[in-house]
Design brief:
The chain is mainly beta. It is built from one helix and 21 strands. A hairpin with a 6-residue loop joins strand 1 and strand 2.
Length: about 270
């Protein structure tokens, strides 16, 4: 887990025992995080002064799919956690339908609820400003799905396709996703070397921003005014020759002067302490 201080540019980190993704900050304590670790959901208390941490496993999912890992996830407005899984190797041809999307609440901390199952590679998600729409990506579908969202109960319904990559000749996998104050979606294209801006109401492709790495993995608004789009990338699976051609692969990039900004991130509210 890495922490980047935008003001002084300081980077700090801790090393956990497993594959880390995602990480969501807790409402009760800025140093308490709800973390996906392999296929477990773990609470991590990070002591910034000495760099140590304590942790507690809250739940482990998909016992029938031991080769799955947590992938993308976020908190909703009420602090419920939405975490999805995928096959470790992302081999959806030989191992299809191994992923699921789970919801974790205070009442079900140790027993996460399956919300969408099966999926292949559970990935980006976002809620609109009115908080009555939920957007979700299962990467191999090359679609962004829209659901009606009931915030009070945390329920989704009435799936429709909001954006179809194939309709715009985008030969890539949609990965992480966020939303701006205008309710446009910003989507990382894994294998597409770019971030796209999408109007989910009309299905329009509004813009495309090249990134100097082919495997673009996720996006999130940050900075003092939430108007900087931070973009993560990967170098996993690249050959030495490919890395020479895209030495920035695996870096975090920042896009500025985009003419819009993001919404404050929701925080987890499923536990108060470890």
């Amino acid at each position: 887990m890495f922490s980047y201080d935008y003001t002084n540019k300081e980077i700090t980190s801790i090393t956990l025992e497993g594959a880390v993704s995602p990480v969501v900050q807790s409402k009760s304590d800025p140093d308490l995080f709800i973390v996906g670790l392999d296929r477990s959901i773990v609470a991590v208390k990070w002591n910034r002064e000495d760099g140590n941490y304590t942790s507690r496993t809250l739940a482990t999912v998909s016992d029938d799919q031991p080769d799955c890992n947590m992938n993308d996830g976020k908190a909703d407005k009420e602090g419920r956690i939405w975490y999805g899984t995928m096959d470790q190797d992302a081999d959806t041809v030989n191992h299809p339908n191994r992923g699921r999307l789970f919801r974790i609440t205070r009442d079900h901390v140790s027993t996460p609820e399956e919300i969408i199952s099966p999926v292949n590679v559970s990935n980006g998600m976002a809620w609109n400003k009115a908080n009555d729409k939920f957007y979700y990506i299962d990467s191999p579908t090359q679609q962004i799905a829209e659901y009606d969202y009931d915030n009070e109960n945390g329920e989704i319904s009435n799936r429709r396709v909001a954006f179809e990559l194939k309709d715009h000749d985008l030969n890539a996998s949609p990965d992480g996703m966020t939303i701006d104050v205008d309710d446009n979606l910003w989507v990382a294209l894994y294998g597409g070397g770019s971030v796209i801006k999408v109007n989910p109401t009309t299905g329009e492709l509004l813009d495309r921003f090249p990134i100097p790495a082919v495997s673009v993995t996720s996006v999130m608004w940050g900075g003092p005014d939430l108007d900087i789009l931070f973009v993560t990338t990967s170098r996993i699976g690249l050959s030495d020759d490919q890395i020479m051609k895209q030495p920035g692969a695996g870096s975090v990039f920042a896009l500025t002067n985009l003419g819009t900004s993001g919404l404050p991130v929701f925080e987890a509210d499923i536990i108060d302490n470890i």
